Amino acid sequence: MASPVSGLQRVQAPLRRSLASAAVGRSYATIPSAPNSSEPTPASFQPSPSKPRPTYFKDTSVAPFSSFLAQPEEPLLASEAYALRTAEVGPAGRKRTITRLPSWLKTPIPSPGANSDFAKIKADLRGLNLHTVCEEARCPNIGECWGGSGGKSAATATIMLMGDTCTRGCRFCSVKTSRAPAPLDPHEPENTAEALARWGLGYVVLTSVDRDDLADGGARHFAETIRRIKQKKPTLLVEALTGDFAGDLDMVRVVAESGLDVYAHNVETTEGLTPYVRDRRATFRQSLKVLEHVKRVKGKEGIITKTSIMLGLGETEDELWETLRELRKVDVDVVTFGQYMRPTKRHLKVEKYVTPDEFELWKQRAMDMGFLYCASGPLVRSSYKAGEAFIENVLKKRAAGNATASDALNQALVADADNKDALQ
């Protein structure tokens, strides 16, 4: 029978072997503080003769560092820069695709608290019970015009006379409509002149709603406002953007002879699209007659005529060419092109977002045809600051030229009289 001691030894043998191997591999927990110590350095702390393995990344999909350095970017192609983006909107199961507004049509939202000129103009308008087409037509340039960066001389607003309710219902316009608008405010001409005198502007645009309910279409009210403005500030240049007065050319004459500097009337679109875009009482030919009659009354050099065309309603290139030719036939001086923007879902859809390059092309074409000036761009409207600044300079030069010619004529008459006296 085996001894119990030998059995215990067999059981403890593996434990003794593991402890023995552990003792051989034991090392110090810390490196000796004194390198010059006489005690031998443990073998486990001897420096390794081999170099450390360099660090590298196994994930080769990570962009190299050079990709994060500033490098010149290649310019986008026109097709890429002007590509329209779409988005899916609506609840699950009923989603629909919409086209997002192009980047070149986005403008900052104006804030009355951020600009003193903007706040002052708005306060004056409300205090004097005046209306502006800037607000009623939801113009995208309201922040730029009302808060002009050059102070009062740069800020401007287009005053809308005869109330905020129109008797016509054009399919592109967001102004309120009614068959029987409120009566005219008899104090409006004086209030308008007073407000403009406060602002200290150099150029102002007056427009109005159509008032087919009035016998004269509001022409005399318009003319009286212009006369009051000129009385308070004769140097202020006035542009009148009028309706067609239902084709009554006598009323066109009343406004043209009131002392204004620029007579504007918008054809809005091409002749072919006019019945679908404008109110049925407005026609393309009737608008041409208005612009033509102004020149007959005041002469070609006596007044500047101006009109505006919206793009993006489905017009063709040939139709636009024909429209420009018709405008030049009646000696229109200034034309503007702007993108049609749908005010609400009740109005006409946008057929096309015209690119800035196309607007620039039509500007060049208009200038080549002999127009005095053309403002063309996605956010350009009929009353646009850039155009007004140019027209203001043209009018001042014409006035200076007329004054110079008058002085020269007077000098010639005096010299002629002196010569006659000498001969006698």
From TrEMBL:
UniProt-annotated binding residues for [4Fe-4S] cluster 2: C166, C170, C173
Residue numbers spanned by region Disordered: 30-57
Entry GO terms, CC: mitochondrion
Domain of life: Eukaryota
Biological or metabolic pathway of the protein: Protein modification; protein lipoylation via endogenous pathway; protein N(6)-(lipoyl)lysine from octanoyl-[acyl-carrier-protein]: step 2/2
Keyword entries, A-Z: 4Fe-4S, Iron, Iron-sulfur, Metal-binding, Mitochondrion, S-adenosyl-L-methionine, Transferase
UniProt binding sites for [4Fe-4S] cluster 1: C134, C139, C145, S383
GO molecular function ontology, one term from the record: 4 iron, 4 sulfur cluster binding
Primary location group: mitochondrion
Catalysed reaction, written as an equation: [[Fe-S] cluster scaffold protein carrying a second [4Fe-4S](2+) cluster] + N(6)-octanoyl-L-lysyl-[protein] + 2 oxidized [2Fe-2S]-[ferredoxin] + 2 S-adenosyl-L-methionine + 4 H(+) = [[Fe-S] cluster scaffold protein] + N(6)-[(R)-dihydrolipoyl]-L-lysyl-[protein] + 4 Fe(3+) + 2 hydrogen sulfide + 2 5'-deoxyadenosine + 2 L-methionine + 2 reduced [2Fe-2S]-[ferredoxin]
Cofactor-binding details, from the entry: Binds 2 [4Fe-4S] clusters per subunit. One cluster is coordinated with 3 cysteines and an exchangeable S-adenosyl-L-methionine.
TM helices/strands, residue ranges: none
Annotated compartments: Mitochondrion
Tagged with keyword Lipid biosynthesis: no
EC number, UniProt record: 2.8.1.8
Regions of compositional bias (Polar residues) in chain numbering: 33-48
PROSITE patterns: RADICAL_SAM
Biological processes, Gene Ontology terms: protein lipoylation
Family, similarity comment: Belongs to the radical SAM superfamily. Lipoyl synthase family.
Name used for this protein in its record: Lipoyl synthase, mitochondrial
High-level lineage: Eukaryota, Fungi, Dikarya, Ascomycota, Pezizomycotina
